[in-house]
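Section 3.1: Structural characterization of target chains.
Under the original work plan, the team committed to producing a structural model for every single-chain target entering the pipeline before any wet-lab resources were allocated. The record below documents one such target. The sequence was received from the expression subgroup and is listed exactly as submitted; it comprises 263 residues.
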Amino acid sequence: MLRDLFNATPLRVPEARVRPMMVIAEKNGKTEFRGGLEHLLVKDAPLEVNIRETMVTDVALEKTKSVDFDFGFEIMKGFFQGFGIPASGVQSALNGAKKISFSFRNVRRLWVDKNELGSRLRGRLIDLEHPSMAPFQGPDPWQMLLISDAIVSNGFAVNVERASGADFEIKLPEIEAVLEDASAKVQVKKGSKNSLSFEGDAFLTFAFCVIQLSVDEAGKLRVGTVFKTRSADGKEIEVVEEEPTHVLLDDNDFEPGLLVFDE
């Protein structure tokens, strides 16, 4: 769903640090969070890129398709972990549920304008001697990616679509007790007898988009993929820069997964 809507990679555990202008390293299916791009630049001027924010309204996010409880709850464990909610307590309160769906609340998109990004990075150099640049250099470098968009939310809901009996009802007091014991900064509300919503203080990223960065031997930074080709006379080297496009970190169309950083 998120891949189709935003070309975004979903996170298994939502977290606050995944934001635009953060660098990601990728190689052979492994993905590492590296930190802010500005720390890798030669320190001649601060990097100022406007991070915009827009509300996201889409029916697919307001309510997903229903799935079997065991499968759906396994997915939601990551969300519970991100918001500091003990999953076992919620699972007990939902005992008897057979099929569930999810809803996302207060969804926002944080993003950078790629044209502005290109202008801000024009003429900027990467500090090739920076220790954190080591993975991106050498004969077998990691792919250097930059987060351009982050889909964030501070709330979600679990909806029971089918239960084992007609008298099924979510046990709200059990969940409230679990949250109190865990000192979780989350409010829980019961929308109906079959719907449970959670809302936290912080907005966490649950999906993000990345674009590729390229660095030449002099440290010149480009947005997109750079190809080197020979000119017609065979003497000069031409550099052709590809348009910046989103890179999917999970391209499995049949069993798309949820990303977990390898760090």
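The radius of gyration is 22 Å.
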